[in-house]
Hints:
Strand content: 35-45%
Radius of gyration: 25 Å
Number of helices: 1
Order of helices and strands: HEEEEEEEEEEEEEEEEEEE
Low-confidence stretches: 1-41
Helix content: under 10%
Amino acid sequence: xxxxxxxxxxxxxxxxxxxxxxxxxxxxxxxxxxxxxxxxxxxxxxxxxxxxxxxxxxxxxxxxxxxxxxxxxxxxxxxxxxxxxxxxxxxxxxxxxxxxxxxxxxxxxxxxxxxxxxxxxxxxxxxxxxxxxxxxxxxxxxxxxxxxxxxxxxxxxxxxxxxxxxxxxxxxxxxxxxxxxxxxxxxxxxxxxxxxxxxxxxxxxxxxxxxxxxxxxxxxxxxxxxxxxxxxxxxxxxxxxxxxxxxxxxxxxxxxxxxxxxxxxxxxxxxxxxxxxxxxxxxxxxxxxxxxxxxxxxxxxxxxxxxxxxxxxxxxxxxxxxxxxxxxxxxxxxxxxxxxxxxxxxxxxxxxxxxxxxxxxxxxxxxxxxxxxx
Length: 374
């Protein structure tokens, strides 16, 4: 009897132990991997719609506040696939889709002025790729050139790891009268916001152009670029250009571009283009050789330099028109909003994706506005 009683007591104790473990929510096996919900501190249930700003000397020409229930297809196209050469020309690994999983309208985003466009890259098997993304453009629906202010309020919230990136940029919307297409970079390119997780404390604002017309054909040597980095912490051009490092940035570091909304802008004048973030100009690019440094002579050297203007370091550059067939920044461009996953360190700006990168990776666009200079 004593052995039986002892056995019964052991069984009862074991059952009580299991019950306590269950009530205490103890986990004895690995849980399934799930997509984390949006954190409470990233949701604002009292978000109110804020009307577009009125700037002295400007009138609102075009805008999208993303306050509707769906993406406005009267303003935006979905560019799907992987580009002509299979990687959008930048070595990317993702496939762009038109699914809500990759681009949608979201409400109650912290510190937004109403709804936001959410563009998300995901690590998932889809058709022939292991990542998905979205690319939205205004091609054929909206384009702008000299005489305009073009700006967007953007929060690259999850762009925190090497290989993750988001861009707000522009490409040519016009063609020479004698051509049926315009080769890159003969037509130019404008990168208003180019933010990558591998360089978390800086944005890159650039123009791209060609050295020669080359009969409107691509040549791998035929590429000029004038770009400047903006330091979010210093609110100016850094003393030296940053290298990969410092990722992932913490969610509380005010010097990281991924930790809040910023207004990315170009003011496009007849003779120059000014890049600014949160109204601080950091790159001024002149379209005529000699204009940037008041040397009164066209020297063909594509000069650039950092100067102190009003107590801030600002990058100045000049000369984009190297051939008579086409002057890119005298013509209209359309807007692109793109997210990407980098495939290598040599071709992909921001480098190859790292194994520990966290997905989904979402960027919020609060609004995009185009103003006409009066």
